[in-house]
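Write out the bound-state structure for zinc ion.
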Amino acid sequence: MSNAVKQPCPCGTGKHYEQCCGRWHQGSEYLQAPDAEHLMRSRYSAFVLQLPDYLLATWHPSTRPSELDLDDKFTKWIALSIHHALQHDDTHAEVSFTARYKQNGKAVRLQEVSQFLKEQERWFYVDGQFPD
Ligand SMILES: [Zn+2]
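---
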C-alpha cells in the first residue's frame, strides 16, 4: 500500500482515504459505491489521484469516452463541495457540486449537476449540466 492510504481523502470528508473513496477504488468493495453521492466523491478523488481506469469503469457506457487522458501537469485540484444529492427513484439520482481547481495557476470553479444511473447493482455517472 502506498502512503496515500493514511492521507485525508481528497474528496474532503475528513476521513482517511482508505476508509473513504479508497474503498471503492480498489479491493473487495471495488466499484461498490452505495449511492450517487459516494460515487461522485470517488470520481472526484479519482481525478485528483489520476485513476483513469476507475473513471471509465464508473462512466455509463452510453456516454463514456473511449479513453481518458489525465496526464495534465497544469491542473491542480483543490476542493470538492457537494450542494445536494437527490434520489429520483431506485435507479436515478443527481448530484449538484462545485469542484475548484487551478489551471496554469488560475483558479477555476466548475459547477455541475450530474446525473447518475444504477444498473446491475452499480451506480454510473451519465452526464452533467452546467448551471449559470
Ligand atoms: Zn473520499
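---
The mean pLDDT is 93.
The beta strands are 75-89, 92-103, 106-119, 122-129.
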